[in-house]
Amino acid sequence: MTGSIDPKAFFTRLFDAAVAAADPAKTIRAFLPEKPRGRTIVVGAGKGAAQMAAALEDVWDGPLEGVVVTRYGYGAPTRMIEVLEAAHPVPDEAGLSGAKRLMESVTGLGPDDLVIALVCGGGSALLPAPAGFLTLADEIAVNEALLASGAPISAMNTVRKHISAIKGGRLAAIAHPARVVSLIVSDIPGDDPALVSSGPTVPDTASRADALAVIETYGMQLPDAVMQHLASPAADAPKPDDPRFSGHEVHVIASAARSLEAASAAAEAQGVPAVILSDAIEGEAREVGGVHAAIAREVALRDRPFRKPVVLLSGGETTVTLRRSGGRGGRNTEFLLALALGIEGVSGISAFAADTDGIDGSEENAGAFADHGTVARLRSAGHDPKALLAAHDAWGAFDALDDLFAPGPTGTNVNDLRAVLVR
């Protein structure tokens, strides 16, 4: 049966199933808070924030007001909640204005009021709010350094929340004494809600010393003003035991784990056994690609550690440490190009990787498709796959083969979906 499967169609069905499992329109109803005696204010940020706002409006029986910020082009029609758009992955003035609007909307609330925070991946860049004497230019410099560092998302957000006036629980602190209920679509390996979009309404125990350790570990060069701020008590974020957070609720309404389970079920429905390797894989994209390739080769050639046919599924968020500039690509295409080099000539292996938000890095594709013949086809077309990988130009490699995957914005974000089919 697996011999008749079209790999691209097969992988697309898995992607669609994973995205559907994280659709806020299907998940948000189960987590609605009790209606307040006072006002209900909605705030939010992330690549799926507009869709979350629309879903909340559809199921909330009562008045709503508020504002959410999403990426340019990711808006959705809403009736009561205003949707603003800003830049991602590097902040801009529109994001600065949006963050200010969110903070103003929860200022001056009382104990009878309710704040519903709709948070998903991407909010860290969409909500620039420089703390103290820092500027938007400082926050942009930090974001650019973080994106090039190769640091995992958890480490990046530890730095971000200590230079911000809105992240690290500070938005919820501003809302005090109103009750805050955070509904979160997690794109963080391990699903720690305090790290999604740098936790504007969810504090954690990380300190400015932890932020400084991340900067040192990854050798980042940040503006002097940023380093001075991080060295001062002004950078301290509120802790979870702060009484201002008493009575708040936090719910993860969608995650990579649930989406992987949905993709697994979709594979089984097509007659292909599925194995979920992990929902929290991190590390250099090319190295993770090499490991996946090694497992796939072992299955293809020796029927271990799993018997073929099988599709190997994984989630999480890899990173790309930029050693050269000028290439076009993202972590999913870089993962796939490294994997393609690792499975060259081993027949029966196909692979797919894509970001569930619909965008892989800064390009317009979510990811791409590859198989055991990808490298040979690149060489036949006059390209050097190893040179493209070294130049971080995986987008160029898959564009040349017409193997990019571009579904457009999905309205959610539970990180990456990787699938390797061995027949």
TrEMBL record:
InterPro entries: GK-like_C_sf, GK_N_sf, MOFRL, MOFRL_assoc_dom, MOFRL_protein. Residues 310-416 form the MOFRL domain. It comes from Nitratireductor rhodophyticola. This is Glycerate kinase. The keyword Kinase applies. The keyword NADP does not apply. GO terms for molecular function: kinase activity. Keywords: Kinase, Transferase. PANTHER family: GLYCERATE KINASE. Pfam families: DUF4147, MOFRL. Residues 12-230 form the MOFRL-associated domain.
